[in-house]
Predict the structure.
Amino acid sequence: MIKLSDIPTTPPADADEDKLKDETKHLVKRLGELQQLMYAQQKYSALVILQGMDGSGKDGAAKQVFAECHHYGVQVHSFKKPSEEEFAHDFLWRVHQQAPRKGMIQIFNRSQYEDILIQWVHGWIDDERAEKRMQAINAFEELLAFDNNTLVFKFYMHISYGQQAKELQERIDEPDKHWKHNPGDWKEREHWDDYMRCYEYAFNHSSIPWIIVPVDKRWYRDYVMAKALVERLEQLGMAYPPLPAE
């Protein structure tokens, strides 16, 4: 059972920052090579889910970890408040439309889990509906994996309560981050304990496991994510397709 309060948000005490930063550069480069193999082979796809509290570095992770991937093979979609059209459909309708086709890496900056998290925290859905939605999410992810050779990576950006306050304050204090400031982020922070409870529910009831990424130090976040992605993609044994027979 995953309990977030038992998991550090910082790197291990013996982590060598310079060494891991250097290793991350190699991993990011290798990820770019693997992405091109995936795009060329058109056999597999990858869905990368980034979840976390405001200020946990989801945007930065997408930028840094996929820096060596070519734009034609990677797409990013951020799920905001549903539109009227989206509200008129089941909660996974808008999500399934963004699922990656073979050859592509699709990054979800927030995801289908928002429909459990924020709605449950604020009482817009009850426990029964949250449970049913969790079952639907598991079925959806299993469908992608089974029916479309989609690798599903689920990263939780594990930030501490104190570090989140610093990140949100920077959006007020630093002019180049003003555009990120949203007063509502501070209001959501008041529900921290409820969010942790709902996240833990999602982690512990997921068919496809989550990777809990300590993000108080961004360099360690990038290392953990790049390493997990490269190691899993390497296992596929991908290769460039040969010339077609004439």
